[in-house]
Amino acid sequence: MAGPWSAVGSKDSVAVLKGVGRQAAETLQEMKIETIHDLIMTFPYRHEDFQLKDLADTPHNERVTVEGRVESEPSVLFLGKNKSRTTVQVMVGRHLIKAIFFNQPYVKAKLHIGEIVTLAGKWDRGRQIITVQSHTIGPRTGGADFEPVYSLKGSIHQKTFRKLMRQALDIAKSDLEDCLPERFRTAYHLASIEDALEWVHFPVDGEALKQARRRFVYEELLIFQLKMQALRKKNREEEGGSFIDYDLNELKKFIQSLPYGLTGAQKRVVNEISKDMKEPFRMNRLLQGDVGSGKTVVAAIALYAAVTAGQQGALMAPTEILAEQHANTLAEWFADFPVKIALLTGSVKGKRRQLILDQLAAGEIDMLIGTHALIQPDVAFKKLGLVITDEQHRFGVDQRRVLKDKGYNPDVLFMTATPIPRTLAISAFGEMDVSVIDEMPVGRKEIETFWMKKDMFGKIVGRMEKELAAGRQAYVICPLIEESDKLDYQNAVDLFQQLSSHFYGKFTVGLMHGRLHSDEKEQTMRSFSEGEVAVLVSTTVVEVGVNVPNATFMLIYDAERFGLSQLHQLRGRVGRGSDQSYCVLLADPKTEVGKERMSSMTETNDGFVLAEKDLQLRGPGDFFGRKQSGIPEFKMADLVHDYRALETARKDAESLVSSEEFWTSDEMACLRSQLEKSGALAGGRLD
């Protein structure tokens, strides 16, 4: 390439750029920008749109650029030290609007009646006001319609950064490598890397920006899915994967012995799981099912399949009470079958514990149910073939791995009652196969859900009392444990005292929250399960797994503080028996999102519908909780809006990873290098 940059390329340091001194270089380094390539791959987080718009077509609260004629003398109101508001009337097309300038009193001297001005700012459609962010005197001439805005640090300003970007793009054009194979660019009409970079940083119009984004979204999702599919391939093809040659006739006998028939969805997932178990590779499957959809029955069938093949099964639950519930349920179902079931939790100690460990090591125990006690060093199986983790997101990755490692690559089934939207399942659990129970058992009554304002609290307690008088039980859920100076939300301790006083001499009220010792939590929950406590006031620690069929009433205080998925999980603690159940959301939401959340809860009991809605309202980062979500940070892709591209990328990645060409051809070398950087290959080819 001729010119001043002929000896410089994208791998060179940003220090070669004009305007990058020591301080700027250090600031760029803080932004993880060391090379010219790093710089050009730093995308704007938004673009300022300077295209002139018709206000009639501009939605409320959107940024807009307009031309208009000044119709009044500007007036300035001083609001205190260095604060002011300047207001002027401007005719924009056929709209007479107000333009407001904050803390810019000097514009009064520049704005004259009859003069044309160009204004850019936020449009308040109802009040017909533009809050001006930038302006020029005179009609709009020249300048780009779209201006990139970057997330910057230190003393580097947008204008400076754009100048650096212009230099960097001119340099990098000489040696850009396009990682996307031509077949994909052609098939999906995607821009080349050179065009896409030019258009994302300096778009000539909206269409160019759209095409740049399409290209980078697909590329980003493809590389991510290649990593997921490579991990999946590696997991499936690990040497010595479990092969469970179960007895189909025995399995059918067990299914026929169950107190109720399987739903169509249960049959489908049982077939998916049993097919995996017969394969010579290790099963790595996620089983999703809404609250009460019958995941435990599916788990029991899978465990029995392992037992009929002469192997052992393990089921790990997050709490002792949930582990006990599973053990009791399985003991009931397998009462007429030659299956030995044992329960191992932290409460099992001394000789009783040692006996279980001895029998387990000798292969005399077929199914071991328990908590994290299953992963203690002295717990040894004779032949562990299947590991099931209930509410898998409650265990850390290391805890799940320790249990898996107690067998020789046993099949692994993760279960969750948290409905996960398909886009998130593909992303967070992309290396797994996913089975979904999306059908509820026949005859199950829907929980009637109501949204009520806080001034109705007395009436709600009266309705709760009717349920209690009929011999049933109630949950009262609230978001805080004790008073907070910062948040004016009812807390569990206050509510417990209030209800204890109200029901004194009639019904016993219990209190449970995260600050109680685990033994106290277990005891409180046991008292509620056994009916000794009529009303359980609790924080969200009851969210997962508790099964009290006699509980028919739930009150969620300050319900606007919870996400939709969490509200749905909480609601699922009632409605587990044959009686009609009720859930009351006590909330005075101040935002539109809060109101929409409450309305959605009253409209559907379908967890998957709510999960999709929650994803739209909260975004993927908050869906699982940011700390351990497993959701990657994308530069350009958005899992909510780009779900079609995600599906396409997954399909393409699966096809590539399973092909010989991907691992050998020169055309795929760049994609392979991206995989190597991600660590998914762990030292080489997977096949």
Automatic annotation (TrEMBL):
GO biological process terms held by the UniProt record: DNA recombination; DNA repair
EC number: 5.6.2.4
Domain Helicase C-terminal positions: 463-616
InterPro entries listed in its UniProt record: ATP-dep_DNA_helicase_RecG, DEAD/DEAH_box_helicase_dom, Helicase_ATP-bd, Helicase_C-like, NA-bd_OB-fold, P-loop_NTPase, RecG/Mfd, RecG_dom3_C
Reaction equations catalysed: Couples ATP hydrolysis with the unwinding of duplex DNA by translocating in the 3'-5' direction; ATP + H2O = ADP + phosphate + H(+)
SUPFAM superfamilies in UniProt: Nucleic acid-binding proteins, P-loop containing nucleoside triphosphate hydrolases
Residues annotated as transmembrane: none
Keyword vocabulary terms for this entry: ATP-binding, DNA damage, DNA recombination, DNA repair, DNA-binding, Helicase, Hydrolase, Isomerase, Nucleotide-binding
Domain Helicase ATP-binding span(s) in chain numbering: 276-437
Gene Ontology molecular functions: 3'-5' DNA helicase activity; ATP binding; DNA binding; hydrolase activity
Entry function: Plays a critical role in recombination and DNA repair. Helps process Holliday junction intermediates to mature products by catalyzing branch migration. Has replication fork regression activity, unwinds stalled or blocked replication forks to make a HJ that can be resolved. Has a DNA unwinding activity characteristic of a DNA helicase with 3'-5' polarity.
Family: Belongs to the helicase family. RecG subfamily.
NCBIfam families per the UniProt record, alphabetical: PRK10917.1-3, PRK10917.2-2, recG
Name this protein carries in UniProt: ATP-dependent DNA helicase RecG
